[in-house]
Specification:
39% of the residues lie in helices and 21% in strands. It is α/β, with parallel strands linked by helices.
C-alpha cells in the first residue's frame, strides 16, 4: 500500500483530500504545517507528498529545501492556490513530480499520484488494486461495462472510471434496484467501518464524480439515486 503525506494548513481541504485518497486505498497521514511535515518525513518513509506552498511558519518551499537532498526517492506533488511562474520554476529546480493549482479536481490529483508511483520502482503490490477480472456486462440501453478495464462503452462513446468509481458502480450493480447504506458502501469499497454521517460525507464527492461521468451515457444520467440520509441505489428498470 502506497504511503502519502498530505501537508496543508487549510483543515477542510486537508481532511477532504485525505478521505478521498483513503477511499482509493492509500495509506494516508495528514499534517497542518511545514514543521510537522519535516518531522513526519524524518520518522518514516513516504512514497508521495502532496504539499501546499503558502502556510504559516515553514512554507512549502522551505519544506522542499529541507528534504530534496536527504529524501531523493520522495515524489512531491505541489498543490497550491497561489501559483506563479516563480514558484513553478523553483518547484522544477527541486525536482517536484507535479505542480497543480487549487481547486484541482480529485481526478487530477489521482492521476498525478498514479504517474508518480508508476515512475518509482515499487513492486505492483504497493500500487492500488484493480477490480477483479470479469467478463463484460451488457447493461440497459446497450451500454457495456468492462470491469477489468474500468471502461464503459456505448454506441458513439466511451469513458474510463477510477478504481473507486468502478468498485462503487460494481457494488451498486450487484445490488441493483436495492438501496445500499452509506456505511456498508464504504466498508465494501474500502474495508473499514465508520458511522453513517461520516460515510455519507466520504461518498458524496465520489458519487458526484461518477454521476457527472455517467451523464454523457445515453439513459444513464438518472440511474444512481440518493436515498436521503440512508444510502444509494442503482435503478436498472427501463426508463
Amino acid at each position: 500500500m502506497a504511503k502519502i503525506l498530505i501537508v496543508d494548513d487549510e483543515e477542510i481541504a486537508r481532511l477532504t483530500l485525505a478521505e478521498i485518497l483513503r477511499l482509493e486505498g492509500y495509506d494516508i497521514k495528514s499534517v497542518s504545517s511545514g514543521e510537522a511535515a519535516v518531522e513526519a518525513l524524518r520518522c518514516e518513509p513516504y512514497d508521495v507528498m502532496i504539499l501546499d506552498l503558502r502556510m504559516a511558519g515553514m512554507g512549502g518551499m522551505d519544506v522542499l529545501r529541507s528534504v530534496v537532498d536527504t529524501i531523493p526517492d520522495l515524489s512531491v506533488i505541489v498543490l497550491t492556490a497561489y501559483g506563479s511562474i516563480e514558484t513553478a520554476i523553483q518547484a522544477i529546480q527541486y525536482r517536484v513530480h507535479d505542480y497543480l493549482l487549487k481547486p484541482a479536481s480529485p481526478e487530477q490529483v489521482l492521476e498525478s499520484i498514479e504517474k508518480a508511483l508508476a515512475r518509482k520502482t515499487h513492486p505492483p503490490s504497493l500500487l492500488r488494486e484493480k477490480p477483479a477480472q470479469n467478463i463484460m456486462e451488457v447493461l440497459p440501453g446497450g451500454v457495456k461495462l468492462a470491469w477489468d478495464k474500468r471502461q464503459i462503452t456505448w454506441s458513439g462513446g466511451s469513458l474510463s472510471l477510477t478504481p473507486t468509481e468502478a468498485r462503487l458502480l460494481k457494488i451498486l450493480y450487484e445490488r441493483k434496484n436495492d438501496m445500499v447504506p452509506h456505511s456498508e458502501l464504504v466498508y465494501l469499497i474500502q474495508g473499514y467501518r465508520i458511522g453513517t454521517e461520516e460515510a455519507a460525507k466520504i461518498l458524496r464527492p465520489v458519487v458526484s464524480r461518477l454521476r457527472q461521468k455517467l451523464a454523457v451515457v445515453p439513459d444513464w444520467s438518472e440511474r444512481i439515486k440518493n436515498v436521503r440520509g440512508a444510502g444509494y441505489v442503482l435503478e436498472l428498470y427501463e426508463l
